[in-house]
Amino acid sequence: MSTLTVGVLVFPGTNCDKDVVEAIKTSLPQASVVELWHDEVPEHPLKEAFQWVILPGGFSYGDYLRCGAMAKNSKLMQAVKQFAQDGGYVLGICNGFQILTEAGLLEGALIPNTTKRFICQQRTCLEVASHASVYTQGYAKGQVIEMPIAHGEGCYYADAETLEQLEANGQVLFRYADEVNGSVNRIAGITNQAGNVMGLMPHPERNLWVNALSGSTGDGRILFESVGASFFVTS
Amino acid sequence: MPTYHAEVLVATRANVLHPESKTVQEALHGLGHHCVKDLHIGKHFSFSLAARDEATATKVIHRMAEQLLANPVIEDTQITQLRVVEAV
After folding, report:
1. Residue A205 is among the residues annotated as catalytic for this protein
2. Of B21, B46, B66, whose CA–CA distance to A112 is shortest?
3. Rounded to whole angstroms, what are the CA distances from A77 to A40, A164, B38?
4. Subunit contact B17:A116, Cβ cutoff 8 A
């Protein structure tokens, strides 16, 4: 059994950080979780203190210029880039996904929904496109799961060549079961080629709880537990 | 070092869907301006900068666009104006 310390990044305007901290505490009670403020420059590389960093949802820097554009240049993000290069796990949820694409840690871009509206849905069905990832190993391939979504700029875009590579490499982890925001190939979540960086628009931290009727675990919780399984022996 | 005044336009590439542009174009059609097509909304940056010469200023602006002002995955950058405002 090894240790898992999770860093949760907080930018001005981030608003899902407490939910993510709660998700870690609930899903992975053995793990430690620390919030990291955007302009605190770590003295040492993040890799020395953390195994996983999460960029939560929200509106970092008020979404000025473009979603994620200001955050990508923050001091802390420079440390995160190094952390990703060193093989650390990096997960971006919603605005965190937008930041990771802006930073070039994930391919493509998130552009305004083709519906021209901010979409807020408690129950959005997703298909697990690949379970061969540290983030999705707890799901079954093709499994249909539910996670809430809440975004105005969640339409995933990548040019044809990039898209072909993502599909060929199995980097698409989640797809919307139905067309919701215009994303190419209904992409909801991807990973980088190395597999350590993941971004998704849906909010796993908002679907954690055991369903009283079915007795099943909240679908979002499985994502956190999947990463935990690489560190802890789970029952 | 001379000071330049720059006007820079950053806009979503033509082949990338931009719902805001599409909506505005449709609204213009709704007002009877059916002559309008290929409408693109962009971001306009206006600033001054000190640079050794025009070539350097151009290079610096494109570097800034790459780093922050534009997302090269979906947007193009165009310097629409670059003129000397202070020669020394």
Report:
1. yes
2. B21
3. 10, 28, 37
4. no
Write down the ipTM of this complex.
0.84
**Neighbour tally for A8: CB within 10 Å:** 25
Rounded distance between C-alpha atoms, residue A114 and residue A59, angstroms? 20
Beta-sheet strand order (sheet of B3-12): B42-50, B3-12, B75-86
Query: Which residues have a Cβ under 8 Å from the Cβ of A48 and sit 6 or more positions away?
Result: none
- Contact residues, chain B, for A182 at CB < 8 Å: 17
Token readout for A86 is: 């060193």
Return the DSSP state at B68.
Answer: I
Catalytic residue among A102, A107, A153, A205: A205
Per-residue pLDDT of chain A (235 residues; tens, 9 = 90+): 589 999 999 999 999 999 999 999 999 999 999 999 988 878 899 999 999 999 999 999 999 999 999 999 998 999 999 999 999 999 999 999 999 999 999 999 999 999 989 999 989 999 999 999 999 999 998 899 999 999 999 999 999 999 999 999 999 999 999 999 999 999 999 999 999 999 999 999 999 987 666 677 899 999 999 999 999 875 4
Chain A positions touching B23 (Cβ under 8 A) are 116
Cα-Cα end-to-end distance for chain B: 5
In order of A42, A100, A131, A160, the CA distances from A164 in angstroms are 37, 20, 19, 6
